[in-house]
């Protein structure tokens, strides 16, 4: 089959690779009809997440048709011919984490748990196409994928919704939603979202769906801010205005009640000298993150507010404003999305027309054009927000 | 050399105990064990793979057991690598799970076998036992040892790194299996 692979720092390459086969009884093989490029793929491709290998198949947002199921998958769960969206964390459904619906912390699905444990203290779930730290599972930017624990993860789509309407249930829609849900939104809340990329856009839509009074989008790309504005959110361009004073202005001096960091480890704003400090430390790997968005969110949030982190962090950061966090009674909440928990309720919201996931798609390309898609997305060319690939 | 490791498995102690007490199950999750053959009610014959094509074998006997709670064993006769172990099964505070506490003691001998075995166990012995218990947990909670494309050979922990790329195996690689 054809598959998009990592082939060295900042290089992807669509190659011919073997077709996937059933390795465990609870596997299924899915013929992929749509897959997407995610912001966290960029962190893998540019080498900031360790343990990538030449030839690793990328991609953790995909959907398609089941063409084979292992002997351990009960027919009432999944059959050949079912149309499914596959969640990015691989979860066993049986461990203590899964029992608590903490699917991205599944205790059984990462065969490289020993390595993840050294990095994170405790291991995390296996993830498709997301480095050997998260298990070394082949990803879904391919014609076919092997899906372990197929009786637990995949969501059957039984209506005639298009791929574009449901594909993002695999990751970015639930991720954005969880970011808003962790804020415990009240109807009087002003919610500020750092990052108007795909996850940020869905965090904004989710905050509104959950009843926020106002939603503020913070980014520097005019086209991303316009996209947020068209969806009814208030744009703030950090290249043009001072973020803190603008947020105070918009909130009568209180600061946003709830703040969502949808940027993560490669934020590129903040004060110039701290930016330079982070760049140097990141370059010598003594700090792995450039956490401007997180620092700014903590400093801006109203006292007693919630800072919800859904941007991806991989390792260590410093200059964390612990004083602001502690002295002003802030709550910090975070997590890789427990996608399995949100897929069904969000599918229902899509069916009821409360959320339109298609609004962020700017490019649809063939799988063989994956490299072009990565470049468009990475360099924010041609107003690229979200790339869908068709194998 | 003393090794200790512990894990929590979301199954009742009676079940975890029964799985372990059937000693022939041990090689399904313990990386270095090739085979355990039951030879009597409390006796068994063990075979483990060591590096450089060396194999070590020994007889063992269960010296103490409390059903659902504890099993202790030790090697007998002139084992190449005299060893002993204890595993305790303790109900976890959640009322559902079982804590598995393992202690294994190896007596690393001199000579060529001793050197090879010391080297084999010397790299990351605690990591190996931790990984063994992780696979025990996988087997009991999910039914199988979980395989990925980068680490497709289940319990072959010593092949954990370097891994193969995260892409499907070819038919030829599958055929050759873990020794390819
Ligand atoms: Zn993603
Ligand atoms: Zn699990």
From TrEMBL, chain A:
The keyword Zinc applies. It comes from Actinoplanes friuliensis DSM 7358. Belongs to the zinc-containing alcohol dehydrogenase family. Keywords: Metal-binding, Oxidoreductase, Zinc. PANTHER family: DEHYDROGENASE, ZINC-CONTAINING, PUTATIVE (AFU_ORTHOLOGUE AFUA_2G02810)-RELATED, ZINC-TYPE ALCOHOL DEHYDROGENASE-LIKE. Residues 26-155 form the Alcohol dehydrogenase-like N-terminal domain. It holds the Pfam family ADH_zinc_N. It comes from the Bacteria. InterPro entries: ADH-like_C, ADH-like_N, ADH_Zn_CS, GroES-like_sf, NAD(P)-bd_dom_sf. This is Alcohol dehydrogenase. GO terms for molecular function: oxidoreductase activity; zinc ion binding. CDD domains: FDH_like_1 (cd08283).
From TrEMBL, chain B:
Residues 147-180 are annotated as: Disordered. Pfam families: Polyketide_cyc. Residues 10-133 form the Coenzyme Q-binding protein COQ10 START domain. InterPro entries: COQ10_START, ORF3, START-like_dom_sf. This is Putative 17.2 kDa protein in melC2-rnhH intergenic region. It comes from Actinoplanes friuliensis DSM 7358.
């Amino acid at each position: 089959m054809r598959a998009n692979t990592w082939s060295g720092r900042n290089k992807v390459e669509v190659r011919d690779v073997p077709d996937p086969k059933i390795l465990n009884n609870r596997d299924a093989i899915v013929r992929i009809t749509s897959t997407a490029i995610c912001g966290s793929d960029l962190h893998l491709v540019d080498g900031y997440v360790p343990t990538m290998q030449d030839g690793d198949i990328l991609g953790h947002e995909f959907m398609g048709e089941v063409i084979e199921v292992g002997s351990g998958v009960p027919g009432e769960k999944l059959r050949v011919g079912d149309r499914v969206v596959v969640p990015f964390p691989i979860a066993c459904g049986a461990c203590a984490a899964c029992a608590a619906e903490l699917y991205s912390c599944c205790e059984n699905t990462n065969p490289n748990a020993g390595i993840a444990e050294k990095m994170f203290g405790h291991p995390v779930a296996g993830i498709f196409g997301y480095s050997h730290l998260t298990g070394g599972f082949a990803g879904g930017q391919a014609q076919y994928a092997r899906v372990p624990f197929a009786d637990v993860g995949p969501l059957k789509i039984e209506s005639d919704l298009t791929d574009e309407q449901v594909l993002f249930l695999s990751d970015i829609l639930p991720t954005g939603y969880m970011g808003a849900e962790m804020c415990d939104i009240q109807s009087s809340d002003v919610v500020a979202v750092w990052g108007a990329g795909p996850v940020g856009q869905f965090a904004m839509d989710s905050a509104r769906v959950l009843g926020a009074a106002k939603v503020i989008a913070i980014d520097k790309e005019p086209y991303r801010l316009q996209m947020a504005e068209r969806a009814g959110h208030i744009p703030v361009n950090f290249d043009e205005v001072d973020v803190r004073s603008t947020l105070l202005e918009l909130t009568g001096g209180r600061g946003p009640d709830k703040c969502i960091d949808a940027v993560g480890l490669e934020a590129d704003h903040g004060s110039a000298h701290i930016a330079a400090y982070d760049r140097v430390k990141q370059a010598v790997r003594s700090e792995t993150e450039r956490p401007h968005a997180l620092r700014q969110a903590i400093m801006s949030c109203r006292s007693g507010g919630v800072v919800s982190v859904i941007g991806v962090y991989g390792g260590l950061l410093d200059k964390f404003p612990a004083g602001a966090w502690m002295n002003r009674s802030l709550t910090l909440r975070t997590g890789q999305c427990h996608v399995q928990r949100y897929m069904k309720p969000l599918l229902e919201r899509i069916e009821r027309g409360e959320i339109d996931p298609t609004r962020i798609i700017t490019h649809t390309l063939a799988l063989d054009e994956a490299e072009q898609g990565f470049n468009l997305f990475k360099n924010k060319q041609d107003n690229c927000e979200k790339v869908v690939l068709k194998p | 050399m003393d090794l200790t490791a512990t894990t929590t498995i979301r199954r009742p102690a009676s079940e975890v105990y029964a799985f372990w007490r059937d000693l022939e199950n041990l090689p399904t999750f313990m990386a270095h064990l090739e085979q355990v053959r039951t030879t009597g009610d409390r006796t068994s014959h063990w075979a483990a793979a060591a590096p450089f094509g060396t194999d070590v074998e020994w007889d063992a006997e269960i010296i103490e057991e409390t059903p659902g709670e504890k099993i202790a064993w030790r090697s007998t006769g002139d084992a190449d690598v005299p060893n002993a172990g204890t595993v305790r099964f303790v109900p976890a505070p959640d009322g559902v799970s079982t804590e598995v506490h393992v202690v294994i003691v190896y007596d690393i001998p001199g000579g060529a076998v001793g050197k090879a075995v010391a080297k084999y166990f010397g790299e990351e012995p605690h990591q190996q036992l931790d990984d063994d218990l992780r696979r025990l947990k996988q087997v009991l909670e999910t039914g199988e040892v979980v395989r990925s494309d980068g680490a497709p050979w289940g319990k072959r922990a010593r092949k954990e790194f370097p891994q193969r790329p995260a892409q499907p195996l070819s038919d030829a690689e599958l055929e050759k299996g873990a020794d390819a």
